[in-house]
Amino acid sequence: MKWVLGIDGGGTNCRAGLAAATGEILGRGQSGAANVMTDLDGACASIVEAAHAAFEAAGQVPAFDQAGAVLGLAGANVADVGRRLATQLPFGESRVESDALIALEGALGGHDGAIAIIGTGSVFMARHGETIRSIGGWGFQLGDLGGGARLGRQLLEETLLAHDGIRPQTALTAAVLARFETDPRRLVTFAASARPRDFGALVPIVFEFADQGDPLAKSLLDEVASHVEAALTALGLRQTDRLCLLGGLGERIAARLGAPLSAMLQPPIADALGGAVAMAARRFGAATGR
Amino acid sequence: MKWVLGIDGGGTNCRAGLAAATGEILGRGQSGAANVMTDLDGACASIVEAAHAAFEAAGQVPAFDQAGAVLGLAGANVADVGRRLATQLPFGESRVESDALIALEGALGGHDGAIAIIGTGSVFMARHGETIRSIGGWGFQLGDLGGGARLGRQLLEETLLAHDGIRPQTALTAAVLARFETDPRRLVTFAASARPRDFGALVPIVFEFADQGDPLAKSLLDEVASHVEAALTALGLRQTDRLCLLGGLGERIAARLGAPLSAMLQPPIADALGGAVAMAARRFGAATGR
């Protein structure tokens, strides 16, 4: 392949990176949502648009049939979505991976180690040599205990328990109830139609009150950190591993990790798009290494 | 009023009890669902049908305009549903109450004390003299921590954590996963469309494995019992109070309560329908007392 493409697509937007066969990025492009779970055709269109923009940014005439692409897409690991998408794409060759895998590749480069992606949800992935293992990522209803949506829901639950006198009220529960005009029924109504991201939007208030010493805020964040530690421990990390905490909650939760995990923390080497481009260069280009 | 009617209506069925002014029950009737939250007109029709059947069972010509009714209805305490329903009913006088209040009246009779209704959800209510206080009952998403739906959801969450190696596997987690063809994705798919009652349907397996000594089953039930204890404690019970645990989980959770609550346990004096009839006889008939 003359060109290699890395694609990082999710529910909010889709990014593409175009590189020469050596893996050197020449241009980047962006487009709208690429949600393969809910809109496969729309996702396909967004991917093509982002790739087109990347060719343009590099000053090149788009030559999709001469490009090998690695795509990291949220939801691609479910059922046969990835395989169906790959047959629709116009690239010379396409390989569809999970969004977590390209994030792992970007964050760790060639090193062994693990990532925790803790945003609205939570997923954990480790690589030791050729062995890759992923846990978590089961979604809001039954999993994602390290993510912001579950944290937000737990905050509302604790607020109701405090309102009922079952748990102590704190400055945080009072502030949350005040957001709902101090009427717990409004809080319940909000939750009835709230999406995970709506619960996740409550996370900043937890951080704010934790900084002020609120005991509930601190204990909620400790619970999240404790789950992240348990998940990373289950992945069987080694002292020499690199560990990157990614996603909107990553930095704040990293600060709450105990030793020995905190000693393994490293900044990510590249982002998920960089990981996708690197994987594409190895697979379809002239780059070597794993 | 010549007649008094007690009505106990919920999402599954609607029951009516007809009594003379003295409160002596002469006939009972039953009909379909009376869900005032989702179908006010249908609930109204079910109520009328059950009342009609109660008159027939007593061998009396229905005389709704000479009947005073107390209706205990799930959801009646939300917004102005109860007031709107009361204007539609054909009875001489109608008073709409929550389902919990008629259950309290039935269970305790004239005594002070408290009830816990722990079925799919959970709600707690205490009476001391004229003072009635209710907590809980906030629904599956943010509350109902003493109910079967939350217990079932927690069971599935623990099963995924065990599958991921974050918590120990037990005979119970293995049995649950086997129900989903040992594919955790099937479990997640089930949960995505499950209603509270579907989660609640998992409760018997928890009791079964608790009896066999499964540590997870026991700890899940201990958590439920611990919430029930905390809620009853928040209601400020006194040593002389009667305590009744009602609902599908009532008996099993009662067995896990510690002293002093377990010493207060009493069987309910009457069911919720009996409570509604007693309230109607006091309010509209010749019966006295509270």
TrEMBL record, chains A, B:
Classification via InterPro entries: ATPase_BadF, ATPase_NBD, Euk-type_GlcNAc_Kinase
UniProt entry keywords in alphabetical sequence: Kinase, Transferase
Statement: the UniProt record of this protein carries the keyword Kinase: yes
Superkingdom, taxonomy of origin: Bacteria
Identification of the protein by name: N-acetylglucosamine kinase
Gene Ontology MF: a single term: kinase activity
Species in which this protein is naturally found: Nitratireductor arenosus
Pfam families tied to this protein: BcrAD_BadFG (PF01869)
Domain ATPase BadF/BadG/BcrA/BcrD type positions: 5-252
